[in-house]
Design goal:
The chain is mainly β. The protein has 2 helices and 6 strands; from the N terminus they run E-E-E-H-E-E-E-H. The chain has a single domain, classed as NE0471 N-terminal domain-like (2-Layer Sandwich), CATH 3.30.2020. The chain has a 3-stranded antiparallel sheet with strand order 1-2-3. A 3-stranded antiparallel sheet has the order 4-5-6. The longest helix has 5 residues.
Length: 88
């Protein structure tokens, strides 16, 4: 039995870094930066909540602990999706 190469993600999506400005997300072979100003749902979340991510249907991302759903298109074209969000 042979293991896969080291250094590659084994999951479809992985949070690779969390900074004071936002989170870095690796989805397949592409990395995205999600700034908190554009994705405020993650600002006050715990690390565990942010890292608990599920990929559904290939390009649909779901954070069950935060009740957040995003698509790959939302990550690539966030300007096409105006933020409509109310804290509550």
């Amino acid at each position: 039995m042979k293991s896969s190469k080291t250094g590659r993600s084994t999951s479809a999506a992985e949070v690779t870094n969390i900074t004071i400005h936002g989170i870095w997300l690796l989805l397949e072979d592409r990395e995205y930066f999600l700034p908190f100003r554009d994705f405020p749902w993650f600002r006050n979340a715990t690390i565990a909540q942010i890292q608990n991510i599920q990929v559904m249907h290939g390009a649909h991302l779901h954070w069950p602990d935060l009740d957040v759903d995003l698509s790959r298109d939302m990550l690539e074209n966030s300007e096409s999706y105006p933020l409509v969000w109310k804290e509550g």
